[in-house]
Amino acid sequence: MARLGTADQSSARGGATPADARPRNRALLLQALHADGPQSRADLARLSGLTPTTVSAVTGELIADGLIGEVGRKASAGAGKPATLLAVEPDGRHIIALDLSDDDVIQAAVINLAGKVVERRSQQRNGETGKQATATIVRLARAMARAVHRPLLGIGVATPGIVDDHGVVRTAAHVQWQSEPLATRLTNALHVPAYVANDANAAVLAEHGAAGATTDNVLLVRLGVGVGAGIVIGGELFVGDHFAAGEIGHVVVDDEGVPCKCGRRGCLEAVVSAPLLAQRLHGLDDAERAVHLEHAGRHLGIALATLVGALDLTEIVLSGPTDLLDDRLRAAALETTRRRTLPNVGEHLVIRFSSLGDDGVLLGAAALVLRNELGIV
Ligand SMILES: [Zn+2]
Questions:
Q1: How far is residue 247's CA from residue 205's CA, in Å, rounded to a whole number?
Q2: From ligand 1's centre to the CA of 161, what distance in Å?
Q3: Which of 58, 77, 195, 362 is most buried, with most CB under 10 Å away?
Q4: Quick one: what percent of the chain has pLDDT higher than 90?
Q5: Full-model pTM
C-alpha cells in the first residue's frame, strides 16, 4: 500500500520539478472538488494554495480530459460577473470493482467517480480455487469492461487474505492462492491499472472517505468468511511490516470456546465469522438469537479492547452481512470494550455499523483506484 497517498509524498519532498508537480496539482484540485463540492477557480486557488495561473492551467487540462466540468455559476454577492463553478464529472471515468469476500459469489460492479454503482453483476465461484478462480475473475472483469461505456480508470479488487503492495495475493485460504499476482494478471488482460487489497483494508478506506467518518483514525472490523480489521491511522491505511495488520481472526477470546479450523479453541473467527454466526442463529426465536448475539458481541469486545487500548481509538466500524449486524451484538461489544479499557479512552468510544451497507467492500475496491490513479481519498 506504499503507493497510496503519493500526492502527499511528493508535496513533502519540496522543490518539485514541473514533471512532479503536474500529477500533484491535478490531485490537489480533484480532491478539493471531491471533498468540498463545486468551486470557482478562485475558491480552488484558496483551498489548494496554488496560484490562480496554475489553477487555470490545471483545470483547463482536467476539463479537456473530461474529469471535471463547468456546472453553473456561483451566486454573486456584489456587482460583477458571477464566477463559473467547476465540479468532478461523475461519469468522466468508470471503475470496475470486484468483491471476493463472499465464500460462494463474486460481486462485480461498475462504479463512477461519485461512488455510484452504475452496473452490477455477480458470478458463482462454484468452489473454484487457484488458477481456475483467477481465470473466472479475469473473465468476469472482461465482461464488466464490455459494459463500460466511459473511459475506464482501472480495476480494484478486494479479497480476504494477505495482499502486498504490488497486488500479489500472498495467501488467501478461501481460494487457495499462494503468491498469486492478481493485479498483474488483470492489467495484462485488460490493459488498465489494477489494484488489489485485503477486503477489510479496502472497506476501511471507503468508510474513511464517506461522510460518516469523523476522525482520521478508524478501525473497521469485517465479519466475513473470516474476521479481519482494516486500520486507518492519520488518514493513511496501516498495513504493518508484512501486510498482515488487522489479522485478528485467530486471536483467542475464549479458552473454553468452540474448536477453530486452525486447531485451537475459541478464536475470534470461530465465534463471530459470518458463516458460523449465521449457522448458529439459524432457526432460533428472538430470545435465543439475543443470547447468541450478545455472546458474540462480548467476545468481539474482548479482542477490540486491546486494539482500542493500543491505538487510542474513538471510532470502530462493524462491516458484514447486514442481516447479521444486529444492534444487540454491537451493544454487547461496546459494553465489553468499555469495561476492559481505561475510562478516559473507553467512554468516548463509538462502535457503529458501516454506513455503506452491503456495498462497503465494492466501494473500497473502487477507492483503491481513485486514490492511486487520481489522488482522491
Ligand atoms: Zn483459529
A1: 16
A2: 14
A3: 195
A4: 79
A5: 0.90
